[in-house]
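Annotated sample (chain length 355).
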Amino acid sequence: MKMKQIFFTAAAAFILPLFSFAQDIHFSQFYLTPLTQNPSLAGLHHDMQAIVNYKDQWQSVSNSPYRTMAFSYDMRLNKKKAKKGFCAAGVNFFSDKSGDSKMTTTQANFTFAYHVFLNKYNTIGGGLQAGFFQRSISYSDLTWGNQFNGSNYDGSLPNGEPNGGTTFSRFDLSGGVVYNFNNTSGDIKVTDNHDLRFTGGVAFFHPQHSAYSFYGNPENLYMKYVVHGNAVISIPNSNIAVLPGFMYYRQGPAQEIFAGWLVRYKLKQDSKYTGFEKGAAFSLGAFYRAKDAIAVCSLLEYSKYAIGVSYDVNISPLRAASSARGGIEITLRFVNPNPFLYQQFYRQISSPIID
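Output written by the structure step:
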């Protein structure tokens, strides 16, 4: 078993950086990464929201774990004048570092979206995103088979690998459309707990097929397609709601299927007279990433603030090396206005996962 674990660990050290190179970043709490999931989600859920994400994974199989940090901010621009629809804008940034090569991707994007009111309960919107990314790598800590002298590793031996660049930068584009149904978006008190909501969308990333190689080869970054959906199904006369969701993406030969649900319990509601008593809710559930992991997810909401914590339990063949330990993910979110406040909303489009 020890030799088997060593083999899988060595294989993981080689294979994981290749996967990292071929695919975009992804978060287990995908419902809390709107601008990474679909540019058209800007402004759909709240008047304003700011989100910070942190993911740490594969500490069990690598001395250099993979770390991803992201920030996003989006807001509506013309809420007070919105009659037929409203505009929204957002910015997002992420930095991803992986493996002994310290392969790092840094990207910043600007997003613009417009949402049209189909009627009191339905909207449809579209969004475009433009950005700039930089990719870098360090060769100093990498080891190669040619540097094995027959008995041990000798770093002074030539590695026999071609010389490549250490960084490159590219312009990037993405876009998407989204449909939203929300039966609480009329003049209905949010405390009624008869919520029925659904959001579904399609997005595309990297349509320009940018050259994507440290060696100057004619290799292009694959275009990525995303299909996603979320819902809120409240149980009348209770404090409980079920929040199913799914996300599918395909990028070249790689694909990800992610589906599951949260069960949300509303702990308390803001005072309908003063708003001083802060509302709160707690959600717990799991999502299954096909052939890879089960993500156990939790979310605590208090007034305008929320913190989400998830952990990926690895179930792929790599678990022989990882001991089923995938990685932890932490999300902090701030929204405005207070989603728990007891008030009437006029065409208020609430979050498809969270009030």
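Annotation: The mean pLDDT is 81.
Annotation: The first strand starts at residue 48 and ends at 57.
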